[in-house]
């Protein structure tokens, strides 16, 4: 058998077996209710049936090439003054709580959405922490985290976000450590508070509505009190990290210094449409130029 033939038959087998495996998985996960009709609404990717463990109901979710990596519409960001706002109401140019390169909290402008689809349903994971702060993100969205036994290293690394390890929600386990920002610290952030560590107490799978991926150029964003990255698994694990984030920020800054707004936005649309399956990226040239200066 030639390698090409083997590859083709393997691919064919997987295609045939995938729905069977999916059905088994749904049964095993305790979803009992009849699946809803899956309609191809607002989905350029793969429609899948997912079990929502909370409701015990099967729902149809859109996996855009398996790469769409974002937060649901109900996830909240913190605004200057201590108020919060759901992703679904967030606009380009809004300032949101993030962590600066010095490890201090700062407010940074949203310069870009690489994904902004309010009505799309997608599979999410919710990471619960012992700080009572729980973040919900797609399985392919990079978070920051340390293994349970690395508490000392995690504590030492807190002041330097450039050294924080990127992990996917699927890699986080009970006992692991993630950076969080308690409500009080958020209010004090004008004076430059800093994140603390919390332990993961549970990892839950659920489906949610809306996929939003705002970018601030700091590489971090505080969502529901947990510090998350602004990178997704479209960046391979061995490349994901502060260096990639720095290059991305530099590329965007350079682009906006030498190209007209429409050209920068067009490039971002092409990349985002490849990454997320739909060309729904948007960019604030004004906010980007300001963040860049
Ligand atoms: C986070 O989840 C825990 C259960 O793990 C719950 O008690 C807590 O209220 C949740 N926090 C928020 C802010 O919803």
UniProtKB/TrEMBL annotation:
Domain (Hint) ranges: 68-182
Protein's UniProt keywords contain Transmembrane helix: no
Alphabetically ordered keywords of this record: Signal
Organism domain of life: Eukaryota
InterPro entries per UniProt: Hedgehog_Hint, Hedgehog_Signaling, Hint_dom_N, Hint_dom_sf, Intein_N
One Pfam family, short name: Hint
GO biological process: intein-mediated protein splicing; protein autoprocessing
UniProt cross-references to CDD domains, sorted A to Z: Hint
Signal peptide span: 1-23
PANTHER family: HEDGEHOG (PTHR11889), PROTEIN HEDGEHOG (PTHR11889:SF31)
The name this protein goes by in its record: Hint domain-containing protein
High-level lineage: Eukaryota, Viridiplantae, Chlorophyta, core chlorophytes, Trebouxiophyceae
